[in-house]
Amino acid sequence: MRKVLSSIAVISVLGIGGVLAFSSNGDTEKDAVNASSDVQEKEEVIIEPPTERTVDTKGDVPWKYLSAESVEAEQNNGEIVYLFSDAEALEDYTIQLSQNPDTSPYDKDTLSTSWANHMTAFIDGVAKYYPDSEQYFAKLKEAKNAMEKFNYEIVPKLIEEAKTLRESE
User: Fold this and answer.
1) CA-to-CA distance for 86 and 80, rounded, in angstroms?
2) How far apart are CA 145 and CA 158, in angstroms?
3) Which contacts qualify for 160-163: CB closer than 8 Å, 24 or more apart?
4) Rg, the chain, Cα only
5) Three-class SS of residue 13?
6) CA dist 135 → 48, 54, 117, 132, 163 (Å)
7) pLDDT, tens digit, for every residue of 42-68?
8) Residue 125 three-state SS
9) CA pair distance 74, 66, nearest whole angstrom
10) Exposure string over 133-159, b if 16+ CB within 10 A, otherwise e
């Protein structure tokens, strides 16, 4: 009887050891798969910036034909409204609006709020294509925030700083 019990014990130990060895070997393969998928996830995906709009702006800047809300709706539908080439005109208009004391027949604060929405749409639509221009877009956001708060005095300086960053990148 002892021999039978010892044989069962030996078989059990060998069986459990084999199962553990097999499951350990399977984990190694899983780890190798996980490691290679981690490497694939870390590879940077390069997205080519668009050079043409998918929305008709009659050859001009979007804000002359579309409200900020319309731009946002178009962008949410996957349309390309703003291009990086709009940056200079956007910067120039931002400075003009911030320095213009007379925006008749419109209220300057109302215009500034609407313009800040256009700036947001520009940033949201373009920044993802230019990851190396993070500082430029951060400075542009500062100017947009100043416009939203009607803090017009600091806007030109912030825009000039943004322009310098854009031109240096």
Assistant:
1) 12
2) 10
3) 160/95, 162/91, 162/136, 163/88, 163/91
4) 30
5) helix
6) 20, 27, 20, 8, 11
7) 566 678 899 999 999 988 999 999 999
8) helix
9) 10
10) beebbebbbbbbbbbbeeebeebbebb
Tokens for 40?
């694939």
Sign of CA dihedral 31, 34, 38, 40: positive
| CA–CA gap between residue 18 and residue 4 (Å, rounded) | 21
- Domain boundaries, given as residue ranges, for the chain: 1-43, 62-168
Structure tokens at 57: 């702006």
CA distance 154 to 156: 6
Q: Which two tokens stand for residue 4?
A: 């039978």
94-135 tens-digit pLDDT: 999 999 988 888 899 999 999 999 999 999 999 999 999 999
Question: What is the C-alpha separation between 117 and 145, in angstroms, rounded?
Answer: 10
How buried is residue 98: exposed, middle or buried, by Cβ count under 10 Å (0-12/13-18/19+)? buried
pTM attached to this predicted model:
0.72
Token pair belonging to 156: 């030109």
